[in-house]
Amino acid sequence: AATYGSDAIAGVMNVITRSHFDGLSFEGKHSVIDGSNGDGEIGLLGGGPFAGGRGHAVSSIGIARRSPIRLRDRNWAVRPYAENPRGGWSGTGRPAVFYPLSGAPGIRDPNCERVGGGVSSPDSPLCRFQYTPFDNLVQDTRRGQWFTEASWDTEGGWHLGAEVLLARSDVPSWHTSPSYPPNKVVDPTRSVRANNPGLVDMARLYPDLYGPYAFCDAPYCGWQGDGGAQDAAGLHPAWQEVAWIRGRAFGQDGPLRSHIRESETERFAFDLEGVTGETLWAFRASWSTAVRKFEDGDALEYRARRALAGLGGFACEQQVPNEVDPRGNLAFSLETLQRHAGQGDCRYWLPFSNSIRPHSLVPGATNPDYDPAFDNGPLHDYLTTILGNRGETSLLVLEAVASGLLDWRLPGGAAEYALGAQWRGETYALEPYTVGAPTPRGGALHDIAIYPCPGGPEITSCDNREGVFAYLPPAFPVEDDRGIGSVFGELSLPVAPSVESQVSLRFEAYGGDVGSSLDPKVAMRWQATDALALRGSFGTTFRGPTLNQTLDGIADTSRQFIGRIGTFKPIHIHGNPTLDPESATTLNAGLVFERSGLAGGSGRLFATVDYWRYEFSDPLVIQPFNFILGLACPPATHPICDPASSWSDSLTISGTVPSIENLDMLAVRIVNGPAIDADGIDFKADFQASAGPGRLSLGASGTATLSWRIDGWELGNAYDAKGRLNYDTSLARALPEFKGRLQAGYTLGAFTSRWHLNYTDSYVHDTPAPWGDDYPIDAHATHDLHVSWSVPGDRATLFASILNLGDEDPPWVFRQLNYDPSTHNPLGRVLSIGLRFEL
Hints:
The protein is mainly beta. Helix content is about 5%, strand content about 45%. The protein has a 22-stranded antiparallel barrel.
């Protein structure tokens, strides 16, 4: 505790290593999981003394591989729209909805459900797309790490230590939806002309639906002109715009899209400890860096519009340069379209079902109207540009601690002290990049400072500076750093032979607008009897904002389902340079019971019960986007938003009507949120005793959350989060009222067995109609079994485990994956076998 003063809210991770291991150890494990090729782990550890025994070194290497599991390989994960409207269904689908410019009702493609789309009601024109068949439940992951530590004791009594850690994790094929929807879902400029070849073919197949809008020489084409502005302008009916579309580039037709996720970590640490006089000195230094690279794909807005107009393809773009209007918007002349649209190297992207050959991952899909001549596959690479971000953080820690005895004797013994200082230097950098696409002015295409205009990367001046991509957010290079200084002290005061107390204080200065934090803590333990001890603590804790949280700009972007419009939208999360540290007042009171000699003398019972209470102030939270949307677009005025609302600036809305259906994206900030009061009880009990020829062990542990109350603030009323999923708020995680475990084990010579019962209580969540609010999420119980056998000679151990023995599915939740990833394990039964061998 002297090192950290009072506890940090974020927690302190202490890694236990086998520093004094002598010999060579090998361990391998393989796990069998339904729908997977299995997971594997291999580890090698070696260590021994050097320098005549004054030094010791240990080195280990480990590699692991997780095989992918597709969501559709779990029968509960990909379900029809009627069973869960939130189960991975987007309102911007494929095939596209056809909205006549005349104002007639939108036309839903007659093959919508045949090709795997979803229909919410007979009156809705939307053809919803389910993206989860293309997602993985577990991604293909490869991990490796190398750790080495060495220590040396000098003749002068000083101890030197050093550590090196290198780790890498790769996800070579992160699977995701074949395409994303455009941010501008409602966009009448995304238009289709009467002679569009896909439209003409759909008019042949469904003359009553599409015939009135198609132009051709056949009798099923009925378009003869709009009788309005286009006719007045002398535009031939074949080239008149007849409708706009709502849809995405690729959907049920695939292909399966995958991108990389890579991360690397390096850490070097040194420590020096020794005594001068009566003072123990400890000096520590560490430096670590973490690099993460992740990629995704999206359509360049100008390419999507070119392809819809019949000018798609790399060769076509070389032959037919972009044309823009004075406002910087893509606008090809009629002459250009008549000469090139659908001719030679120029291809149409077609929004209708006759271009869809359902992918094998879409369950039960078929399409009798598919025509290979209309397949959009040749345009996939043209319409999908890979963009990435490379983030790097580093941390340098320098620390010095002095400790020893005070000339102050108390009834329980001498008082002890510890004083220390610490300095942390942090850096954060983000570098966007583009893969395989030209960047005429350098940088990355999603760097909005360089490429601001949707009309094309060569354009620098436009009215709508929204970036060049249709969905994914813009990025910009970031470099930031800061230094954090702290001093801390602690007193250990044995106020009585059976009473120990500690008093600690830590001051931490972040500088700038963040400020500083001063946190005291008092702790006491009373050994009331030989078997019973009472303990308690009271103090304050802190958590400072990270560098990316204090960015003056977009710190992150998430894609969230907006229930009121039935589709996903990007949520831009902006940093906040004026954040205060999060703080909390903490109280803990409990007892420790330990007694031996039970059950005929061989039994031992160890049990703890603790009551905890946290009162959080200024918690670091993300503004809940649903509340902002509700304030800017009140349900009473649905679908019209209120431009006079103080929250309207958080919304980006396209078109002339401030309607929630025209929402492109929503901006939120990282802020200091409302006060949160929480309390609960933790308990743990272990009993061991001889039983027959072996030894029996029994145990129980659990956490009961008594309350989790959130104060009201500008973005929400007072709220009790206990026993709820809390999906729609960033102020609390899923909080079942009780989570616990029972265990029993038996050891007989070289054989050991253990059984676990894992239990999570039921909790509730808000669901769509007709299920309603406070819909229960079932309680969940699973059984685990572990066995091991030490081969005679004690050099080899065989072990096996069965997790989730009954192959229980996770409880049903009305969210995109149909379960709660923060609480339940979706893998089902997992069988693991392994070998450990030591020399």
